[in-house]
Amino acid sequence: MLVSLMPSNFDAKPTFRDRIGVTKIDTEMTFFCEAIFIKKKYKQEIMRIQDTDDPYAAAVLSNIFDDTNTLIQ
Predict the structure, then answer these.
(1) DSSP secondary-structure letter at 63?
(2) Is the pLDDT of residue 23 over 80?
(3) Distance between CA 50 and CA 62 in Å, rounded?
(4) Could you read off the pLDDT of 39-60 as tens digits, one per residue?
(5) pLDDT bucket at 1, cuts 50 / 70 / 90
(6) Which of 7, 27, 29, 66 is the most buried (most CB within 10 A)?
(7) Is 61 a residue whose pLDDT tops 80?
(8) Cα→Cα distances 46→31, 56, 61, Å
(9) Are 15 and 6 in contact (CB under 8 A)?
(10) Cα gap 30→27, rounded to integer Å
(11) CA 64 to CA 40: how far, in whole Å?
(12) Is the whole model's pTM more than 0.70, yes or no?
């Protein structure tokens, strides 16, 4: 929709127009807060396995204890 400019006097106050096609969208994102419990005994075992240089153990641990992706899924 085109609207032509209206002529005005030299020192006149401007005529204000609404912005066409602009809308404000205001939403709030839901907040989630969850965790997965790990016993201290298991955490010590995990740390012991991580201290070794066994690549297979590291791969298995990363698949089993991938808590971030588990919670997201």
Answers:
(1) H
(2) no
(3) 10
(4) 899 888 888 888 888 888 888 8
(5) low
(6) 66
(7) yes
(8) 30, 13, 8
(9) yes
(10) 10
(11) 16
(12) no
